[in-house]
Specification:
Shape of chain A: elongated
Helix content of chain B: 25-40%
Strand content of chain B: 25-35%
Largest sheet of chain A: 4 strands, mixed
Strand order of the largest sheet of chain A: 2-1-3-4
Order of helices and strands of chain A: HHHEHEHEEHHHHHHHHHH
Radius of gyration of chain B: 24 Å
Order of helices and strands of chain B: EEEEHEEHHHEHEHEEHEEEHEHH
CATH superfamily of the largest domain in chain B: P-loop containing nucleotide triphosphate hydrolases
Oligomer: heterodimer
Number of strands of chain A: 4
Number of helices of chain A: 15
CATH architecture of the largest domain in chain B: 3-Layer(aba) Sandwich
Number of helices of chain B: 10
Largest interface: A-B, 26 and 30 residues
Structural class of chain B: alpha/beta
Structural class of chain A: mainly alpha
Distance between the termini of chain A: 36 Å
Radius of gyration of chain A: 32 Å
Strand content of chain A: under 5%
Chain lengths: 406, 318
């Protein structure tokens, strides 16, 4: 059958699959899908913050004179801005008693006023007793407080000079960090979406095999058209999803982030080109992996078989993703170039490169290379699909099977 | 296009062979379907009917042999002019009936808008307008089958191939389907259908192909199949015995006072003469032409005997 007829038939199948998916109620859940991990992040983040807020900081009892304690408190106050993640230990003054050992023991075991440890001996012979590790946070903080208190008490006080601060929008370090982050985020989004959608494609194929529609299709149009139609319908559907998610994300950033989209550090090729490359590389990655999944799906006749078969493929994809992420932050390294050359990891590697390197010509070469592989894998997977689904086509034998036959 | 006498050939298969995983499913089937005819592919379950049809339609490629469909040796090239109802009916469960019909037309080149219009027309012609918006999953099996059948003809094909179209239908719907097949043939459409129920073929077909164990045991006109068997004589006489008995063939059987036997090679005259000469007292005498069912059993049985490596005579003597 001629190519235009194959494309026409593929379009008929793609249109049916696309409208059946996009116009279904379940597509709304698909669109809302990213809200679930975001929501979970907020919920668990909120719980964590609440735990931090409600948990009182550990207290150290300071057996000292009011003057020494005032200096220690002042020192603690100076270091307080450093304790943003976890608050510094709180200090609580206790009047010295004649029997220091008994007082220490009583303080350490008091249930009414639970404390982490006891600091005694004044500023010049400090001694800390408590249930802590020897070089842990608490001991380090107590040491700092004592040193600072002693410095403040001495007559050699140097007036502290405020540092003059000039703010710039970016620096090489901040840009590199932001681009690294963008590269990893781009790769992760690409990987998760590809695996998710290839899995959906596979489920759809199994459903079609079970409701026997495949026979109706195969009698009317070439198998290549069925294969292409299904693949491109899911691609179109996922591009709808990506467009919705990207628009929603951009709107959220524009509304909630100070300065809107401008406030985000741009990837090396700029945001418009980067988003365009994400779409292109997602399409390439999806076509490569989706075609592989369809080829595999054709071998299976039940969902269970699909799950068994797709597991090693998914694991291989995880390996490829890991391989591609090795080059993030080092775009000229052997790992980054190797991942860009290997067809199945190439889209992941190149999306990271778009975040980190300004040059556009490597993307032109990479896209041509990936298109060639897409064509090759589509052809191969289509042949497997034809032979497996319709039990047709020339029979091929592996070398060991040939020997057995002979 | 090839011609068969005065008529063009709509479909032709020559020595089709199909192997699945080393096992031969179809073994050298040949078939000729004249344009405008109704041709039945008869055979027991598992005989290779569906595989033969799938090869002829280009769904699967034969291991060897050739086929032409409407003059093309690549059947999918004429897919727009062919309608196919597969044995295992397949429709999208959530698709409305009219959309399913239009979609099947679109697969075969009919513009979707025209397909929708024709779908509503086809449903309304049969008094099923209310099915149009109903998803397939809400229809009964018979209703869904009707929808698929309408999807098979919505693009007005020149050739319709129906694989076991009567299975799963009640008597009323079987009658409606027979009428639809007749209507299509009357409109000049070539119809090929497979069945293992011979009565349908006998009522509808001009030609039949009998397939047994992957081989075409017979292919030709229905009359030709029937003429393979000799007419059956039913004879009842007043006299239980007499010289007339020698005129009866040795294979004659007496069942409840009635003699049944194949009409001898010499025709009815010698038999009649013997009966009259010896005053047998003929009560009833009838000579029946064998039905397609008898022909089928005889032909499929011969083929089976050949598979086993015995001739029918040997098989009978054992």
């Amino acid at each position: 059958m001629k190519l235009p007829e194959t494309i026409r038939a593929a379009f008929v199948i793609a249109r049916r699959d696309f409208s059946a998916t996009v116009l279904s109620k379940t597509f709304l859940f698909f669109l809302l899908g990213p809200l679930f991990p975001i929501g979970l992040g907020f919920i668990f983040g909120g719980i964590g913050a609440q735990v931090e807020e409600t948990a009182a900081p550990a207290t150290v009892a300071v057996v000292s004179s009011p003057a020494d304690f005032a200096l220690l408190q002042k020192a603690r106050h100076r270091f307080e801005p450093l304790g943003t993640d976890r608050p510094l230990v709180r200090l609580q003054r206790v009047d010295p008693e004649p029997d220091a050992a008994a007082q220490r023991q009583r303080l350490l075991t008091s249930a009414d006023n639970p404390i982490l440890g006891v600091l005694e001996g004044g500023l010049f012979a400090p001694k800390f007793t408590g249930a802590v590790t020897a070089d842990g946070r608490t001991v380090q903080q107590i040491n700092l407080f004592v040193e600072e208190a002693v410095r403040m008490r001495s007559s050699l006080q140097v007036p502290s000079l405020p540092v003059e601060v000039t703010l710039t929008r970016t620096s090489s370090g901040s840009v590199a960090f932001a681009r690294n982050l963008t590269a990893r985020a781009g790769q992760t989004i690409l990987f998760v979406l590809t695996i998710l959608l290839a899995g959906m494609l596979l489920s759809q194929l199994i459903e079609e095999k079970s409701n026997k529609v495949i026979e109706v299709l195969a009698a009317a149009v070439p198998v290549d058209a069925i294969f292409l139609g299904k693949l491109f319908a899911m691609l179109a559907m996922s591009l709808v999803g990506i467009t919705v998610w990207t628009s929603a994300g951009a709107a959220a950033i524009a509304i909630y982030a100070k300065g809107g989209l401008e406030s985000l550090p741009p990837p090396a090729v700029g945001w418009p080109a980067f988003l365009f490359f994400i779409l292109l590389y997602f399409s390439m990655s999806y076509l490569l992996i989706g075609a592989t999944f369809l080829g595999i799906g054709a071998q299976a006749s039940t969902v269970r078989e699909v799950q068994t078969l797709s597991m090693p493929v998914t694991m291989s994809q995880v390996l490829l993703f890991g391989f591609a992420s090795l080059g993030v932050g080092r775009p000229d390294s052997a790992a980054a170039i190797g991942a860009a050359v290997f067809p199945l990891s190439s889209p992941f590697a190149m999306v990271a490169r778009a975040a980190e390197e300004e040059a556009l010509w490597p993307h032109v070469i990479a896209l041509v290379w990936q298109v060639l592989w897409v064509a090759l894998i589509l052809k191969l997977a289509s042949a497997i699909f034809r032979r497996s689904v319709l039990k047709s086509g020339p029979s091929r034998r592996w070398p060991w099977q040939r020997r057995q036959t002979a | 296009m090839f011609a068969m006498g005065e008529r063009a050939i709509a479909a032709e298969a020559r020595d089709l062979v199909k192997d699945f995983d080393g096992k031969r499913a179809v073994d050298g089937v040949s078939l000729t379907v004249p344009e405008g005819s109704i041709t039945g592919i008869l055979g027991p379950n598992g005989a290779g009917k569906t595989t033969t049809l799938r090869m002829m339609l280009g769904i699967i490629d034969p291991t060897s042999g050739t086929r032409t469909l409407l003059g093309h040796d690549r059947p999918l090239e004429v897919a727009r002019e062919v309608g196919y109802l597969p044995e295992e009916r397949g429709l999208y469960p959530t698709m409305p009936a009219s959309e399913a019909i239009a979609f099947m037309g679109a697969l075969r080149g009919l513009p979707i808008a025209e397909g929708r219009r024709r779908a509503l027309q086809l449903l309304s012609d049969r008094g099923h307008e209310d099915w149009a918006k109903r998803p397939i999953r809400t229809l009964s099996k018979g209703m869904a089958q009707t929808v698929q059948l309408l999807g098979t003809i919505v693009h007005r094909p020149r050739l319709i191939v129906l694989d076991e179209p009567f299975s799963g239908l009640d008597a009323l719907n079987q009658e409606k389907l027979e009428q639809l097949i007749r209507d299509q043939a009357a409109a000049g459409v070539t119809v090929i259908f497979s069945t293992h129920v011979i009565a349908h073929a006998e009522r509808l077909c001009e030609r039949v192909a009998i397939i047994a164990e992957g081989r075409a045991a017979f292919e030709g006109a229905v009359d030709e199949a029937r003429s393979r068997l000799r007419p059956i004589v039913h004879l009842r006489t007043r006299m239980a015995d007499g010289p007339w008995r020698s005129a009866l063939p040795t294979s004659a059987k007496n069942v409840a006072g009635e003699w049944r036997f194949e009409l001898p090679e010499g025709g009815p005259e010698p038999l009649l003469k013997a009966l009259l000469d010896s005053a047998a007292g003929i009560e009833t005498l009838s000579i029946e032409r064998p039905g397609l069912h008898d022909a089928f059993i005889a032909i499929a049985g011969e083929a089976a005997a050949r598979e086993m490596g015995h001739s029918p005579a040997e098989a009978g003597s054992e």
